[in-house]
Amino acid sequence: MKASQFFISTLKEAPADAEVVSHKLMMRAGMIKRLGAGIYNYMPMGLRVIRKVEAIIRDEMNRAGAVELLMPVVQPAELWQETGRFDKMGPELMRVKDRHDRDFVIQPTSEEVVTDIARQELRSYKQLPKNFYHIQTKFRDERRPRFGVMRGREFTMKDAYSFDRDEAGATKSYQAMFAAYKRIFDRFGLEYRAVAADTGAIGGDLSHEFQVIAETGEDAIVYCPTSDYAANIELAEALPLLAERAAPGQTLAKAPTPGKSTCADVAALLGLPLAQTVKSLVLATDELNEAGDIVATTVWLLLVRGDHELNEVKAGKVEGLKNGFRFATIAEIEEHFGCKPGYLGPIGLKKPVKIVADRTVARMADWVCGANEVDAHLTGVNWGRDLPEPDVVADIRNVVEGDPSPDGQGVLAIQRGIEVGHVFFLGTKYSKAMNATFLDETGKPALMQMGCYGIGVTRILGAAIEQNHDERGIIWPASIAPFQVAICPIGYDRSAEVKAAADALHQELLDAGVDVILDDRGERPGAMFADWELIGVPQRVVISDRGLKEGALEVQGRREAEASKVAPAEVGAFVKARLSA
Amino acid sequence: MKASQFFISTLKEAPADAEVVSHKLMMRAGMIKRLGAGIYNYMPMGLRVIRKVEAIIRDEMNRAGAVELLMPVVQPAELWQETGRFDKMGPELMRVKDRHDRDFVIQPTSEEVVTDIARQELRSYKQLPKNFYHIQTKFRDERRPRFGVMRGREFTMKDAYSFDRDEAGATKSYQAMFAAYKRIFDRFGLEYRAVAADTGAIGGDLSHEFQVIAETGEDAIVYCPTSDYAANIELAEALPLLAERAAPGQTLAKAPTPGKSTCADVAALLGLPLAQTVKSLVLATDELNEAGDIVATTVWLLLVRGDHELNEVKAGKVEGLKNGFRFATIAEIEEHFGCKPGYLGPIGLKKPVKIVADRTVARMADWVCGANEVDAHLTGVNWGRDLPEPDVVADIRNVVEGDPSPDGQGVLAIQRGIEVGHVFFLGTKYSKAMNATFLDETGKPALMQMGCYGIGVTRILGAAIEQNHDERGIIWPASIAPFQVAICPIGYDRSAEVKAAADALHQELLDAGVDVILDDRGERPGAMFADWELIGVPQRVVISDRGLKEGALEVQGRREAEASKVAPAEVGAFVKARLSA
């Protein structure tokens, strides 16, 4: 490919609305162009990366036995009503009416449509297992689209759906997809982790996120450097940090803490370690009658150590909180605690409150909490002596660096990651809602066991850049770079020798199947080099009269500080060897 | 590919709503599956064809110097308001509001978005010419979707847009696309014609439709078998069929024609050739004031020979009718002609009427027309003697088979075709509306000259089948067949020899880059053969114990009545030779 036959459009400055580095660099490198909020044109340079990402995904999905089809972007609402998602989903589901006033959605995913296909096409156990996938345009009307392709509204996703006879089969399908995803992410050349994720109401442990490691990632991922353990922060189990509860050593006392409403302030004032304090969080659950009116409300006090954070996903697994909870109102808090927030605690309640203690809190002795009195805290608090044992003891906090690994193999570390893939066992959630059955060996109808497996194709670009960039621009892994090699001739128009050498190398690399671009735009060397560094092409070859005369052309990898000098006759072989390394 | 790892789903009967053969066969062969009116899932077998069509298009577009990008499916209404299409287009433009109540459209084409890209990115004459294309999902909310992928609502289209400095450049871009389209359609292996088409208000002669020839096609295409002339029926020029007007030979007379209101009936009653009669068609044009009220109406009488048909596109080019016309109301007709339709003519008018005679009618003598009196016609009518010369003489009729070719090289023939591609010079229509300018050599802003070039990707499938099928199913051209070869082993599970031979041939063909499927489903031979004939795979190899023993395996082309017997060791080479032939 010659640059003059392609389209290159780089910018010195990123537009002001680009907040994160990948967004800035994709705009500057001319990979995307904003059309509207969260809606981008994929410009030729960016589309080449997308196509390479898609090709790797397609190759490995096919290898894993999945079969590609293509489901529509615009889908009839009827199917979405069958599963209830048409009504349950918020405005992120883009709804549209046709000329006959019939409802449609612009697909954010395709569980409904693929289940509809399966219930019609997969009628016998002999046709199972089957895994259908497509790579298609999706739309989610995000409340606040941002970060370029990282949280856009229109995006490209690969979504696969497996159908099995039973859970054992579904587990095998899941594992095949898990293995395919590892191959896919290996081939992308990105540093990533497959982390266990919450399965929600489905249960079981068949849910993994594929997270691309990046300091700028929105997700916290937890792993054990000395074992295989890895989970996202929602799921990672926090073991109790104390082996057992110590005997009380202090008497219960009230300490004045004027204006100190946070654990950190109280600990500092009292000269105690933060780990001696306990944080109070007040939730509420409502019981509704059939008409949907609230007939009873329960107030809950959740206690976590002062240096820990509540994990709402874990809280949502506590018996009594499973069907949803909310934060209590100020009125409810004052009614039950006789005090405004900032000084709350489990002792001296005005009305009964359900007390849930984190595992670590349940083993603490001589701790500090609010006195249910403004500007006062209690010290030397002890379970059993000063208050009853908690109603519930549960893991309700986020793990922190240094916590023991749940597998007993070391301590936990935390990294930031960007979720770009998710494999998930769905069970019969959709097959039940849509009555997707097959005839089993005995001729009886049985519900299909399903799994779903997504990869955010366009998001991969953002994640790859967040992980791989420097002050000069993007650093693409070779497998997904828009071009693998940029030939930069100096004086292509002026020097017959330079032109001949550049054209010959271009042809030699093309013939070898290398994805090469010859920059024949006639830019000055500085601007030309800066463009290819910004765009992030892995290898650059500079062809100049001087280099040819001296028998030493410059080949420089994008991450290298210095160029290698290579004899002109050997440049082709040198570059090919680098790319196959 | 082994069939067990793919997905094959054939039907004995087509669903009742499938009206045309391509729709029926695509449903029966499991290529598409209906999701809603005009909305289809592309099943694995159909998607393979789509991908092959896309690959050929992409290859030739790139070769012609066009650059691929990807524009969004959901597009902000603002751009569509700039060109006025948001308001002007009817309900076939699918409009949608986002969560903030902002207007969007689901793209039917992308002129607005690509022009927006061009006006931002192409700032200098040095960047021109440039041709951007994408292959993307489109949506048109058709009033009556039908014929499967031939007139669906959601479909895949390749649309390209060229930007040039001037008309000479745009003409070159147009010609490059025209040549690329010919290569594309040649590679599809379809019989087609590039026919000149109407350019509407743009003018000039840079508009061609690529029509796939099929008896079932909706379009009439006109060509000259002894020259290059080809045009669609809207455009094809009708020359006058008479060299000059003969002198009057008859006197004007009134003939009673009770109940005979068509030319054919009148000719039969009077014992005259149909070509002696003249048909009257009454149109009206309204003059509006600034408030949009009608301030004046002109009634027009268009005259074509009794055996000819009015061509409304041509009529729309007559001075005075260019800004739109309508058919006259019965009241207007009675007011001007003093008679109801069926017996109208240009003689004895009650009020002034503009008379437009087709070129042939203007040269007729002694003709027959309505007498403006119920149940009566005039015979022996002659221009100049019985009525004034016509106000306008113009080509306003469709050509018919046997008409002289406008290029003087023979006579015209007519075929049916399916429009699957269109190349069109847009001029400054969009660049003017959206102010897409570039700086020319003198540093002054100038409007870009545009062209647009579409191919209906999914429609190609329907057109290919309409052209190539028989009573057993589809007959795909090899270049776009879902598979090129089907290996049909008889007793794959039972016979080790059959399995070994089938597996070996499968591998040999795969290694040679042949797109082959090995049918390991264990179907009985009859059902297996019927499936591959229905699906339309070009070559079939049957591997049986008997064939192996006798040293003669059966290779049969989809269009062949008999199989060729080929020695097992030579089957691979035989098939490869056939495919490369």
From TrEMBL, chains A, B:
Keywords: Aminoacyl-tRNA synthetase, ATP-binding, Cytoplasm, Ligase, Nucleotide-binding, Protein biosynthesis. It comes from Ideonella dechloratans. PROSITE patterns: AA_TRNA_LIGASE_II. SUPFAM superfamilies: Class II aaRS ABD-related, Class II aaRS and biotin synthetases, YbaK/ProRS associated domain. The lineage of its organism: Bacteria, Pseudomonadati, Pseudomonadota, Betaproteobacteria, Burkholderiales. This is Proline--tRNA ligase. The gene is proS. The keyword Nucleotide-binding applies. InterPro entries: aa-tRNA-synt_IIb (IPR002314), aa-tRNA-synth_II (IPR006195), aa-tRNA-synth_II/BPL/LPL (IPR045864), Anticodon-bd (IPR004154), Anticodon-bd_dom_sf (IPR036621), Pro-tRNA-ligase_IIa (IPR002316), Pro-tRNA-synth_IIa_bac-type (IPR004500), Pro-tRNA-Synthase_IIa_type1 (IPR023717). The keyword Nucleotide-binding applies.
